[in-house]
């Protein structure tokens, strides 16, 4: 089974796939971090760890399932052919579309909640907490959605199950290492929570576009086109850059106002 495993081609694929899995897993990590904030603060770190461990396990299970039943996910479940709307919907497209809609709903609900809270400093103590089991359930459900991109990327790059599994495990370990840093940064810089929610909203839009493309959706003859990864990361970089510049400029204005008084 290990014959021919340790080759330059497999090593190169492993390194590329590990980097890709880590990058694709960042939106998953962001969701886990934001969902963990809804539970008892004493259990935040624990639920982040369990969320990431389950993400790794689900990706490996899903990888095995996809390799065995890959065609079943791609085969159409039903088709629609109306004058203004057409679709050829598969199981894959339904899962991606549902995940995108859920992420958009989650992001908008949290943004609305932020704007509606009268006392942000006291929000954490007064907010209704989710139970550990409920938060973990939503993390598991969304892990399935997030796992599709990473698993299909792995399948597209190689057919070696050991190489794919190793890359998923290593990227998961990197996510565990990064999880505390992401959570600590968001807790110390609460203004970036808004940025995180808009990134989540953007990921939802990307998933809906991807799901619509997979389902061959067309409206009035215009097909739904997916957002390229390059475009997504450019928009993401632009959002972060605008937030950083705006935050520094706001601090500068506050300092000048303080000196003026």
Describe the structure.
The protein is built from nine helices and four strands. It has helices at residues 8-24, 26-36, 44-74, 91-116, 120-126, 132-157, 161-188, 192-214, 229-260, and strands at 76-81, 85-90, 218-219, 222-223. The chain has a four-stranded antiparallel β-sheet. The chain is globular, with a radius of gyration of 21 Å.
Topology of helices and strands:
Elements (H helix, E strand, L loop, with lengths): L7 H17 L1 H11 L7 H31 L1 E6 L3 E6 H26 L3 H7 L5 H26 L3 H28 L3 H23 L3 E2 L2 E2 L5 H32 L1
Antiparallel strand pairs: 1-2, 2-3, 3-4
Helix pairs in contact: 1-6, 1-7, 2-3, 2-6, 2-7, 2-8, 3-6, 3-7, 4-6, 4-8, 8-9
The gyration radius over C-alpha positions equals: 21 Å
Helical element count?
9
Arithmetic mean of pLDDT: 75
Number of E-type strands: 4
Largest sheet: spatial strand order? 1-2-3-4
Percent helix, as a range, is over 70%
State the low-pLDDT regions, or none: 120-126
What distance lies between the first and last C-alpha atoms, to the nearest angstrom?
75 Å
**Broad structural category:** alpha+beta
| SSE arrangement, N to C | HHHEEHHHHHEEH
Report the portion of residues in β strands.
Answer: 5-15%
> Tell me, what's the shape?
globular
Q: Outline the biggest β-sheet.
A: 4 strands, antiparallel
């Amino acid at each position: 089974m290990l014959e021919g495993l340790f080759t330059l081609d497999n090593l190169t694929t492993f390194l590329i796939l590990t980097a890709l899995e880590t990058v694709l897993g960042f939106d998953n990590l962001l969701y886990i971090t934001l969902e963990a904030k809804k539970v008892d603060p004493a259990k935040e770190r624990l639920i982040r760890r369990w969320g990431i461990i389950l993400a790794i396990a689900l990706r490996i299970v899903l990888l095995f399932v996809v390799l065995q039943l890959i065609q079943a996910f791609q085969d159409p479940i039903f088709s629609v052919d109306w004058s203004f709307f057409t679709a050829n919907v598969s199981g894959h497209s339904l899962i991606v579309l549902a995940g995108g809609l859920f992420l958009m709903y989650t992001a908008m609900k949290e943004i609305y909640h932020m704007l509606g809270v009268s006392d942000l400093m006291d929000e954490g103590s007064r907010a209704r907490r989710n139970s550990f089991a409920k938060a973990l359930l939503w993390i598991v459900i969304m892990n399935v959605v997030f796992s599709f991109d990473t698993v299909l990327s792995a399948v597209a790059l190689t057919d070696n199950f050991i190489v794919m599994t190793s890359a998923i495990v290593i990227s998961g370990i990197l996510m565990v290492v990064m999880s505390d840093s992401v959570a600590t940064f968001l807790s110390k810089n609460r203004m970036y929570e808004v940025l995180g929610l808009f990134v989540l909203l953007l990921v939802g839009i990307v998933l809906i576009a991807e799901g619509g493309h997979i389902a061959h959706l067309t409206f009035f003859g215009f097909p739904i086109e997916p957002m390229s990864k390059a475009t997504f990361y450019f928009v993401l970089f632009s959002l972060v850059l605008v937030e950083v510049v705006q935050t520094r400029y706001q601090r500068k204005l506050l300092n000048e106002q303080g000196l003026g008084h």
